[in-house]
Amino acid sequence: MHSSPAPKRRRRSKDAEIESSSTIQNSSPVVIFAHGAGAPSSSDWMQRWKTMLKEALHAVDVVAFDYPYMSGAKKRAPPKAEKLVEFHSNIVKDAATKYPGHPLILAGKSMGSRVGCMVAATLKEVNVSAVLCLGYPLKGINGAVRDETLLQLTVPTMFVQGSKDNLCPLEKLEATRKKMKPHNELHVIDGGDHSFKIAKKHLQANGSTQDAAEVVALQAIAAFISKSLE
Fold first, then answer.
1. Where are the membrane-spanning stretches (predicted)?
2. Number of H helices, E strands in the chain
3. Whole-angstrom distance, CA of residue 123 vs CA of residue 116
4. For residue range 61-102, what is the model confidence (pLDDT) as tens digits?
């Protein structure tokens, strides 16, 4: 008796399911998340945003790390951002090797976002899908606008900024965004400072909460990343 061809069809269907599942799985991004100048990846802010980004983006992993100057018991001032690019680039290349086929998102807090933009603009060995800047420090210590790196970018870029962030006047950022080559978006956290913290009086006046403001920001981030990965 000849065997029925049904099992073959079932096997082909099962193979298609596996292939489809693999495609979905590989579309999940890997986020490389760099800290700001003053606090390491283990800080409460970094850990909280690491968790929120992983959930909002359905990320396969959020790779947070410390720049070398953070090591040791004695707190040290960060070097110039340019001196951190090589170390940051190696973290990105390691993540690309560990998670082949997954889109890479470079995210950073303040200084970490600036270094991430430098990496995205110069790293040739790895394809970066998007850059996420959380509190980009557009103004330097001397007050000058530091837009050179942003103008070198060629990958989709999103800024999340507090409206009361003295390190990034929104009108200056808007002027820079108009000159940037790639698609870029801005989400403003109303009343937020450089770390997105909103004063209680502002929240009460607007009938909002810190958590609610951050949820809206995360929704905007997720929508931007989804578009960037299409």
1. none
2. 8, 6
3. 10
4. 999 999 999 987 677 889 999 999 999 999 999 999 999 999
Tokens of residue 116, six digits: 């991430």
Distance CA 7, CA 90 (A): 48
Q: What CA–CA distance (Å, rounded) separates 146 from 176?
A: 10
Q: What angle do CA 168, 193, 108 make, to 5 degrees?
A: 65
| pTM, two decimal places | 0.87
Contact 117, 133 (CB under 8 A): yes
List, in sequence order, every beta strand (DSSP E) within the chain: 30-34, 61-65, 104-109, 130-134, 157-162, 184-189
Alpha helices in 153-209 (DSSP H): 170-179, 200-206
Domain boundaries, the chain: 29-228
Nearest CA among 69, 59, 73, 58 for reference residue 36: 69
